[in-house]
Amino acid sequence: MSDKNKAILEEANAAIAQGNYEGFLSFCADDTKWTFVGDKTLEGKEAVRQWMVTTYLEPPKFRVVNLIAEGDFVTALGDITMKDEDGKTADYSYCDIWRFRDGQMVELRAFVIKTLRR
What we know:
Blueprint: H1 2-17, H2 21-25, E1 28-36, E2 40-43, H3 45-55, E3 61-70, E4 73-83, E5 89-101, E6 104-115
Parallel strand pairs: 1-6
Antiparallel strand pairs: 1-2, 3-4, 4-5, 5-6
């Protein structure tokens, strides 16, 4: 099951990288819950959809360093570059912990830290 969940996350992230946010959301359960540790919690697919519209001004660029799967969980560690609310490019390091249920992403705990450009 863990390899299947890993493949689902890779496919979902590929959809985001192409700007296909509905394609990404098709992998999420309707009752998905996203917690950005120290920031906010989104409850439900519609809340995530609205967050994506306002946050992903253009498709983000991901660099996954490690993808670790075990049981119902997949952990992704890497870097992301995206435009901030001022239209400037911003870099972040992240650790996403995804929980799956019946082949869908049902919960995210995201640890995201803005980093300095090199």
